Give the backbone structure.
Amino acid sequence: MPALSHRITTLNGDGSDGWDVFYRARAMVAAGHDVTELTIGEHDIRTDPSILNAMHQSALGGHTGYALVPGIAALRDEVATRVQARSGVPTLRENVLITPGGQAGLFAAHMAVCAPGDIAVYVDPYYATYPGVVRAAGAQPRVVATRSSQGFLPERVALEAACEGAASLLINTPNNPTGAVYPRATLQGIADVVRARDMWLISDEVYDTQVWDGAHLSPRALPAMAERTLVIGSMSKSHAMTGSRIGWIVGPEVAIESLIDLATNTTYGVPGYIQDAALFGLRAGAELEAEIAAPFQRRRAIAERMLGEQQVVRMIPAQGAMYVMLDVRATGLSGEGFANALLDTCAIAVMPGESFGASAAGHVRVAMTVDDARFETALRSLCDFAAGLAKAA
């Protein structure tokens, strides 16, 4: 058959998409094994019934045809109001494009700001799809290396070196996989670098309702940054609507106009009944968002207590998001080796740090996505397993 394009065959770079342990765990579950899955950011409590009812009523009411490509006016207005209230930056409907989830927003944002061959920078560790998104947009990926000992925060010298000659920088705070919430000083340093190099900043803020320590600050709110920042938002994490695939991009009006043209020729918008459900969810207010976030804050406390009772596994401070990053280098294994051994020995599935970049080698990411009791049992087993490995090493 004819050859596939170089663009599509090189999406995963080295040939792996980073999800090998996850796929193996799912195969074990399909074969009837009882596996505790702490891999992906999927809430153990599903979408609130009131949101689903709003979706159902909208569909029954006939909102099943083509919806406006930029998003229905009421939802764009609601997102603009939410973003302005949280960031303090004046935001209008014209600054908002509704997308089929945050992932589609990431791809569209890179398509908008990167010409073919441009360098697109992101921070390592990174969400596993970031390199593929950059390559899909025709850009060249480049990472900002970080250090576990510094909480995986990007440091100024590393930022300046990585951003030399680049078109864009992608950041994620609160961060997946590390749980870091970037402080103002870090964000100001990022802003200084991108302004000095006349770059675009793409800010992935899908975990902005899951902050346990400190406060979330959107870099769009920093001086002279609104004109060069595209913010990615989503209903997936804040409202447990992962499968509904609805998110947004917020940015300068001229950029949103061009992104609407891209959406017209790619996704052609988001189903109207899903947009109506998202509108209902946003209008439910902060109380619903806090209810959805609460289990992860509880489990973060469980992890801090349990990891504090032993000396082998080191927990990276988790200030936000639904994960904890654990340093398992004392076991003598890589993150990938530890994750595979843990799955085989204890039937517990976690993500290797190497799935998220070289900076996270020797670590594993644990998703806090099972009920409290099962989470505590799994963490105890993980720590006991690690202790046995360390003793034998």
About this structure: DSSP finds 13 helices and twelve strands in the chain. The domain at 65-284 is CATH 3.40.640.10 (Aspartate Aminotransferase; domain 2).
